[in-house]
Amino acid sequence: MAHNLQGTMKKLIDLFHSYSGKVGDKYHLNKTELKSLLQEELSGLLCDSRDRMAVEKIFSELDTNKDGEVNFPEFVALVTELIIACDKFFIGFKKDEMENSNPKKD
Ligand SMILES: [Ca+2]
Prior knowledge:
By secondary structure, this protein is mostly helical. It has helices at 4-20, 31-41, 52-62, 72-101.
């Protein structure tokens, strides 16, 4: 029996902690850790993560409780937004593909 979703959830948790555990509080991301995560894991989906102002903006938006760190729930909010955006993109892509393979007859 496959447990793909459970495995994916564990990978997401492990990934978060592999970055949050680098400096200071091992359960929260500071700005440097977040920047590293963005550059190494999400550079294909987000704007230029080498841009200091872009990282500052993302950090500020993620840090909803304004404690100066990004905890796991705050990080998951970003992942959720990205997954939804990717799903919308792929649904649009599949609709275009189906319409092109079954052109309407007039
Ligand atoms: Ca926070």
